[in-house]
Amino acid sequence: MKRFFSVEDVENVDVLVEEALQLKQNPLSKNDLGKGKTLGLVFLNSSLRTRMSTQKAAQNLGLNTIVLNANQEAWSWEFEDGAIMNNTTVEHIKDAANVLSQYCDIIGIRCFAGLTNKEEDTSEKVYSLFEKFATVPVISLESATLHPLQSLADCITIKENLPVNKKPKVVLSWAPHIKPLPHAVGNSFTQWMNQSDYDFVITHPEGLELDTQFTQGASIEHYQEKALENADFVYLKNWSSFRDYGKMPIVENDWMLTPEKLLTTNNAKIMHCLPVRRNVEVSDALLDSENALIYQQANNRTYAAQIVLQKILESNEKA
Amino acid sequence: MKRFFSVEDVENVDVLVEEALQLKQNPLSKNDLGKGKTLGLVFLNSSLRTRMSTQKAAQNLGLNTIVLNANQEAWSWEFEDGAIMNNTTVEHIKDAANVLSQYCDIIGIRCFAGLTNKEEDTSEKVYSLFEKFATVPVISLESATLHPLQSLADCITIKENLPVNKKPKVVLSWAPHIKPLPHAVGNSFTQWMNQSDYDFVITHPEGLELDTQFTQGASIEHYQEKALENADFVYLKNWSSFRDYGKMPIVENDWMLTPEKLLTTNNAKIMHCLPVRRNVEVSDALLDSENALIYQQANNRTYAAQIVLQKILESNEKA
Amino acid sequence: MKRFFSVEDVENVDVLVEEALQLKQNPLSKNDLGKGKTLGLVFLNSSLRTRMSTQKAAQNLGLNTIVLNANQEAWSWEFEDGAIMNNTTVEHIKDAANVLSQYCDIIGIRCFAGLTNKEEDTSEKVYSLFEKFATVPVISLESATLHPLQSLADCITIKENLPVNKKPKVVLSWAPHIKPLPHAVGNSFTQWMNQSDYDFVITHPEGLELDTQFTQGASIEHYQEKALENADFVYLKNWSSFRDYGKMPIVENDWMLTPEKLLTTNNAKIMHCLPVRRNVEVSDALLDSENALIYQQANNRTYAAQIVLQKILESNEKA
Hints:
homotrimer; alpha/beta; five-stranded parallel beta sheet
């Protein structure tokens, strides 16, 4: 593996999930692989799970980590090619990416969607520029449109909880929130589910369609109740409008997931990438129930990051 | 040891101090104990000594450390059980504690008193919730009411400076400050001194009584001059009113410690947990004198943290 | 080496550069030298290159690193001796330096010029006080007047790019900027060049003279065009007025370096410490050309830091 930006960088999702599960059995088995090498983690946005799990993964591989909170600790970045930098930005992303590559063998970067400029977000302007100018492998710690480490952890978690003798039905359900959120987790989960042979359904209010470049082939059902029937896994996630970009259309029905809504499911497991707005997106009764897989998902973030870092290190070694 | 929140989590203070002193002689003697394990340090407030000394202690044990400045780097936390999270808090402490436990073998957390809600501070709302939901051992890096790593370092420092052939007299003296401060250091030092067989006296202006749940059994003397007589150690620390919670009553007399006030002591050693407001709490003449133990206290923070981490790691190993 | 504040702390620049180049061939050759030891990196200002390269250097030496963003994570410092600390500063630099020395074997500190008080900056008030009160070796991560790790990296880079059979001509050229900047990089590069046997010329608009204590002996040429003739290296850097301290005098001519200006040079290499204001200080056409050494300079920051840390560790070992 030379990069990790989306599911398209994975040769075979099933095999990667299986390898992650093996590694989870013995996390320190390749504790020397990263010796003398450095992972740079660059955050343009807040992070708890990604920050912690990726550091933990690196430690398990004997890889040194240097964290950079780019906006707080370093300099604000210019993204325009050819810009006359006579304003507030202090360093061009071209220089930052090139320079960070001098100190790191792998760089992870987090750069959320700004939700104000659809074209910039959709084209992954920040991530693409960073990767273009970096001279070492880059992995996404969540970009404007995708969150592949989360999706890989989600796939690992589903694999650990497969129903017996049944093709699993996985539902991605839009959930209410109080402010407009990016589409990355929804897009990304859809992408990875499209690679599986699970029965996958997305449910969301009309007007809240995800970008079709990620949903292609996925079933979409606007009635949450109908979508939930016989579900084995329900993944809750809010996102803002893609069509009316970054806006929050008024949603009439109550989309919060509650125990009542679970009655028609196959005693479905509840998934969320966290942080979750409790009793807004999902009720406490579900999040605190045995059906919730949320902490197992968080736990699997370590092994998702670790298998990706391992693949990149091994691929570099061969090169 | 399964947790470290207060002196009550210590089986025998004398033995723990003695073990810390032995470890100080050879800090790298158990450099493999933490191998492959991770300490998470979560700061909801500023920190210099605790941040540095605990990382140093972890390094001495071969334990990896991941630092999280929770408010700056991650998400603001919700503390209310059952809250409908439709406001500014982004992640419930329940989820944060559970998630951090997925990546860490031990978690240290710093959460100062807010000094606005007496009941919340006194009940250790934040610390208790965090510990309740964490699934790994938690240690206090200073909570609303106590600062046990500081007190353990203070006990180590006193042990290293015991007067010869004399039962030591230790005085905890309230000191002036320009803004209301928490009671944690005062409460905690009192708790640990109450476990010793030293002659221990607290002196403070009337109206500035500490919480009796911590002072119980300790001598209180409102005349600083009288309290200082024949003292071997004077520990200076400001705290705000506990009765009129978080307020600063007008204090008429000058409580700043000066060389003149030391004349009736037994050439007392000067202690302070730092940071210290020089020439407000204590005069430069004392802080810069040979009597000051302030840097030795800071140094012993490493061994206090290290012996606690060691005990928890060893206790986990047995489990 | 016992400290690293300026070129004056280096016995022989040529030898140090040569040793750094050897170490670059085999960066992990002394991977055990720092075992069990701790480097503290204290930032009072932003940092990317210094932050990353010094951590990388420490890792290469097996040295643990603890980073402290002093203003964000700890307490604001008091610098006045004898101050009655009844205002906004919370901890005296005396105490901070002494305390940090309890946890670290070497401390690096970054403290930029404030550009408002010439005397304070020129006397290196902050750095001097920190070093005075620290009880372990201190290295500069850029102080008010000097940036020696940058200059050492610059010397390494020049050595790697020497013209054949020609005494190299090195030009330090003032470059335009949109806000007043410190003099540290300009002063420091001048200091190190004055130790070399290169042909060294400084060019800047009249009124923008650097402090003569650093320029002494260096040629100064106010016509950029004339200075550039036959140059092998052109180092671009902005600084504000030293005479009219911290101000930006109006500069009539266009001092931005462009390809046209390079025509009279000996196909000069372009150097800049970064971050660079593209198309203000230097044009993209040069920064993105093969003549640019900017990323090589950034890369050599690691080996500059590593050879300095190595010298200090070795010197401590002997002691």
